[in-house]
Design a protein that fits this description.
By secondary structure, the chain is an alpha+beta fold. About 50% of the residues lie in helices and about 25% in strands. The chain is rod-shaped, with a radius of gyration of 43 Å.
Length: about 290
């Protein structure tokens, strides 16, 4: 039995063949080119952003350099007001040396050096404290905006706007640096020290005044007076009779003697004034 193709069947076959060819050309030829074009467009956009950032950097170079010089000078002046980073032994030597200079005895010393910078804010009535509060509120608003974006479960946000916002923020960071870190301390370490001294009351007061008048940053958080029992050296006079035979023989008097006065050091337990000081020594990591 023979089957013959009609004209209509032939036309259908030719149409299907042409359709398959068109689909194949579109899938393996046109679509890859469209994807490559889109990638190239994205790359061009990124390069345009990079070009814009570099142009702004060049235009702001002189201004940024002057800002950096002023910043480094200011930082050097401020860091000079703090102690260099010290170990417990160095702090011990610093305080005990001052105590010895005032003829005082340090009978108790506690030192706590943190491993991370201090998060203490500035003095509550200073202008810097107001700025720190403002910076902190700005950071909190920024974090709140990020949380709201994360909580958008319906996904109704405009991704293009978000990408544009991130790109703008990246440009700002590239040109001016990360301003989110402004006002945060990364260099100042606070060593908490408690020292107990014993000795003359006038010398104890002089030691306290010297600490309070220190050019370097030391904050006395508390101090208290008390008494301290210690051994004290006392010079006791002792008479020693020495026979001056040669002098007596020369004068013809064998009974003549001379008396020489000497002293002997003895130790006795006495009660003296004591002063306990709790302070914070501010140290700066000056290593660049």
């Amino acid at each position: 039995m023979k089957t013959q193709m009609t004209e209509r069947d032939k036309k259908l076959l030719v149409g299907m063949f042409i359709f398959v060819i068109i689909v194949a050309i579109g899938y393996w030829g046109i679509i890859p080119q469209i994807k490559a074009y889109n990638k190239l467009g994205t790359k061009i956009d990124k390069e345009e952003v990079t070009k814009s950032v570099n142009e702004q950097k060049v235009s702001n170079l002189i201004f940024v350099e002057s800002m950096c010089e002023e910043y480094e000078e200011t930082m050097a002046e401020n860091k000079a007001k703090f102690y260099d980073m010290m170990s417990e032994a160095e702090i011990d030597f610093l305080l005990t040396t001052r105590a010895v200079q005032h003829d005082l005895e340090a009978y108790s010393l506690s030192i706590d050096i943190p491993s991370s910078p201090s998060d203490r804010n500035a003095y509550i009535y200073s202008e810097l404290y107001k700025q720190q509060l403002e910076w902190e509120s700005q950071r909190e608003l920024l974090y709140m905006d990020v949380d709201e974006d994360e909580d958008d479960l319906l996904g109704t946000g405009d991704d293009k706007d978000d990408d544009k916002k991130e790109t703008t923020e990246d440009e700002t960071v590239d040109i001016w640096g990360n301003t989110d870190m402004v006002g945060e301390n990364t260099d100042i370490y606070v060593a908490k020290v408690t020292i107990s001294l014993g000795g003359d009351e006038a010398q104890l007061k002089a030691f306290l005044d010297e600490i309070m008048a220190s050019e370097k940053k030391i904050l006395i958080t508390s101090f208290s007076w008390g008494e301290y029992r210690t051994q004290q050296a006392i010079e006791v006079p002792v008479e020693e009779i020495i026979q001056a035979e040669e002098k007596a023989e020369a004068e013809g008097d064998t009974t003549t003697t001379t008396t020489t006065k000497k002293t002997e050091t003895k130790y006795e337990l006495v009660t003296v004034k004591s002063l306990t000081i709790t302070m914070e020594i501010y140290m700066c990591d000056k290593v660049e």
